[in-house]
Amino acid sequence: MKILGIDPGTARLGWGVIDNEVMVDCGCLETPPKQPEEKRLSSLFIKLNELIKQHRPETAAVEKLFFFKNQTTLIPVAQSRGVVLLAAAQNNLPVFSYTPLQIKQAVTGYGRAEKIQVQQMVKSILKLKIIPRPDDAADALAVALTHSFSYKFKSRVK
Predict the structure, then answer these.
(1) C-alpha closest to that of 103 among 5, 19, 1
(2) pLDDT(58) > 90
(3) Radius of gyration of the chain (CA)
(4) Nearest to 97 by CA among 7, 26, 17
(5) 136 is a catalytic site residue
(6) What confidence tens digit (pLDDT) does each residue in 71-99 have?
(7) Binding-site residues from annotation for Mg(2+)
(8) Which fold would CATH assign to domain 2-157?
(9) Is 63 a catalytic residue?
(10) Is 50 a residue of the active site?
């Protein structure tokens, strides 16, 4: 199954595409910090639509806002997540959301794993030579892997 994983953000939105737990592509969508927020969100929306059309994923997995240490970035990240949900809906792409705790648990087996541990496991699971950069891309791949594992588990249970 081809999955588009998203780590939402306004300045930097990480994305990764996997197909049967093999990395297809990954990267970051970035917007200029001095640009008005509506322009930044519009730019993310356009670029997300291009990514969806280019890679034709069967589903999207997005990190859910669960707990935020930095309150000043909470609203922009929530807005970015809204743009992701809208782009997915307009492309008839089912969306599944996972908390950071669920992602860490799925990828490392430990819900309180450090960011570097998650990235090392992404590298290992996807059999990559190096950890994908920037960090946001590796995080997006972890989200996609979480959905892949969850989907497989649910399929076996049925």
Answers:
(1) 5
(2) yes
(3) 15
(4) 7
(5) yes
(6) 777 888 999 999 999 999 999 999 999 99
(7) 7, 63, 136
(8) Nucleotidyltransferase; domain 5 (3.30.420)
(9) yes
(10) no
